[in-house]
Amino acid sequence: MNVSRLIWGIVCLVLAGGLGVLNIVLPPESLMFQVGDTNMPWLPVIILGVVGLVLLAGAGRSESEATQNVAQTQHKQTINQEKAALNKRLESIAWGLFLVMLGGNLLVPNDRVPNGVWSIGLGLILLGLNAARYYNKVRMSGFTTFLGILALLGGLTELIWKLDIEGALLLIILGGYLILKPWFERRQLFGKAEQS
Questions:
Q1: C-beta separation of 1 from 59 below 8 A
Q2: Whether residues 46 and 86 fall in one domain
Q3: N or C: which terminal CB in the chain sees fewer CB atoms within 10 Å?
Q4: 94 with 181, same domain?
Q5: Domain, as residue range, for 47
Q6: CA-CA distances (angstroms) from residue 190 to 55, 144, 163, 186?
């Protein structure tokens, strides 16, 4: 049994329960959790509850099982030079697109392009890179996928709703990644391209 997951799962559920009780007992305007201009005091309760349940569900798995799974996975992984070369070409293309976009950003005055367009472009480049990796059966990079989603959602919120909430999105996406991490590990979607 993973004791740290058990403890943190219980802590998250206790915090979610405490916030839920406060939301019921106190008047609606006394608890504030702003998302844009809207007060959403139940959002932290839901997030903490889901994280707590996921941690408790993962606590039952023994560390020896996890160690055996990691050892088996490492044994199966071999370096594939062809996929490593393909990954390098894909990364070079993405860097080229990024530099062209950065040059366009420096060339075009800021008042001519709506806020968020450059972030959307960066997000599409990073997500396109990982989509090409996935299509060619090369492992995707969790870091660039994370940054691509963050840039795309941040740019869309700036463009459509005129909100600058990239910091909040960073936390939400990071929490979502941590919740889904066991699923990603089972499917072996993220990792080094050479080990595809």
A1: yes
A2: no
A3: N
A4: yes
A5: 1-76
A6: 21, 10, 31, 10
